[in-house]
Specification:
Blueprint (H helix, E strand, L loop, with lengths): L5 E5 L5 E6 L5 E8 L13 H8 L9 H10 L3 E6 L4 E8 L3 H14 L4 H19 L2 H14 L12 H6 L2 H11 L5 E7 L3 H11 L21 E5 L5 E8 L8 H11 L6 H8 L6 E8 L4 E9 L4 H17 L4 H19 L2 H13 L7 H10 L2 H11 L6 E6 L2 H16 L2
Parallel strand pairs: 2-6, 7-11
Antiparallel strand pairs: 1-2, 3-5, 3-6, 4-5, 8-10, 8-11, 9-10
Helix pairs in contact: 9-12, 9-15, 10-11, 11-15, 11-16, 12-14
Length: about 425
């Protein structure tokens, strides 16, 4: 990614336009992003961001839902949408010759959805079914149980999908008001990567993205310091699904590349310590690993393992031992070199996807972060050393910082496993 290929401009309404020209491809990845998500909702609105994302596809001033689908298909476009805790966006990939037509459809959806009553009521049932399906997937749901244990009643502790009660009852005028309040110029970013001209994308945005000026997004309340939480949900499952989590780093923290290396070392790759010790050496679990999430002012690092009842305590003891090792034993030169190559490889491979490039541009622009070149990102990874990993692990993985969550048959099994983890961490 060269510096000259990336450009950012701003419309009078506050909408920002960011692009990267990739002349070696014949396609364009385009996204319309808004800086709003589940953390921006009140309790009474829980799930409205995700619900609204669904409703963007249900008809506009010019097109019905069926016509939108037919138009995208006729242009050969692959399109979808997503909601996170801090963003909502619609995105599409298509042949460069169809840029104007696809941009027109996407802007119409994002800013001129009509929320037809019949379509809204029908989609309520779709989302309620999605929630029900989600309730039957404990390996997915346990991560939201961990969020609740870690962040408590703060909006970051609520699940993105919301609740069936809110989705089933929230009036259309309330949904429209949320859209009008949040989908404003200063909160919107147009991001594109592929065979394009920035000037052309900017001109299209000026004509098609007619957003209300609105107010600059107010920073939401920060999660307050709270004691570590423990959350358990009883469910008749074959496995116990267990998570540990602690506050992590914000989006802008300079140590985020150290954390990326640390996470890959711990459980973010098939050669990671957790994968080797829990799965490969002992056969205690099929699925085990770690992950990180970054938000505006905080973040989290999480660990997951799913295993049978008679192996829960042993698996969690091994997890605790690996956490303790990270903050007490230096990473060897060979291991550090291997992990860095994994991280660099993933960065390079991501740059070969115009969709990934577009998403990275949007995320940086939405949250006022620098847009780094590939070489700059690789330099930051290469600069990470063993002492920085040990120091960061000691800070983030102190025993008193960990919250825990589980879904399984008996809470007592979970509590016994936590004692095994605590003993390993306390020995550091």
């Amino acid at each position: 990614m060269s510096e000259s290929a990336t450009r950012t401009t701003e419309l009078d309404s506050g909408v920002r336009v960011v692009t990267e020209a990739v002349p070696s491809v014949r396609s364009v990845a385009l996204g319309l992003w808004v800086r709003t998500g589940s953390r921006d909702e009140s309790v009474e609105q829980a799930g409205v961001s995700h619900f609204l994302e669904h409703l963007l596809f249900k008809g506009t001033k010019r097109y019905t839902a069926i016509e939108l689908n037919e138009r995208f298909d006729s242009l050969g476009a692959a399109f979808n949408a997503a909601t996170s805790k801090e963003t909502t966006h619609i995105h599409a990939r298509f042949l460069d010759e169809h840029t104007e037509e696809v941009f027109d459809l996407m802007s119409e959806m994002m800013l001129h959805s009509t929320l037809p009553e019949a379509e809204v009521d029908s989609e309520r049932q779709v989302v309620i079914e999605e929630i029900a399906m989600y309730e039957d997937e404990p390996q997915d749901k346990v991560h939201d149980v961990l969020d609740r244990a870690l962040f408590g009643d703060h909006p970051l502790g609520r699940r993105i999908i919301g609740s069936a009660e809110v989705i089933g009852e929230i009036p259309v005028p309330d949904i429209a008001a949320y859209h009008a309040d949040r989908y404003t110029g200063p909160n919107l970013v147009v991001a594109a990567a592929g065979n394009l001209s920035h000037d052309d994308i900017h001109a299209l945005a000026e004509r098609l993205v007619v957003a209300a000026p609105g107010q600059v997004d107010q920073d939401p309340s920060e999660p307050r310091e709270r004691p570590r939480g423990v959350a358990f949900q009883a469910k008749d499952t074959e496995q116990y699904h267990l998570c540990l989590g602690a506050p992590g780093l914000s989006r802008s923290d300079e140590r985020r590349y150290t954390l990326r290396v640390l996470n890959t070392l711990l459980g973010g790759a098939s050669s990671s310590r957790l994968f080797k010790e829990v799965r490969e050496k002992r056969g205690l679990a099929y699925s085990v690993g770690s992950y990180v999430a970054a938000y505006r002012e905080t973040g989290m690092i999480g660990l997951y393992v799913g295993t049978r009842e008679d192996r829960v305590a042993e698996a969690m003891q091994v997890v605790g031992n690996e956490l303790a090792r990270l903050s007490s034993e230096p990473v060897t030169a060979d291991e550090l070199r291997r992990v860095k190559e994994t991280v660099k490889g993933r960065l390079v491979l991501a740059q070969e996807s115009t969709g990934a490039r577009m998403s990275a541009l949007a995320g940086a622009t939405l949250f006022d972060l620098p847009i780094l070149t590939l070489d700059e990102m690789i330099e930051k990874v290469e600069a990470v050393n063993s002492d920085e990993i040990t120091d960061l692990a000691a800070e983030l993985m102190a025993p008193e910082r960990f919250s825990a969550a589980a879904i399984g048959k008996e809470e007592g099994v979970f509590r016994t496993a936590l004692e095994a983890v605590s003993e390993e961490l306390a020995a550091v």
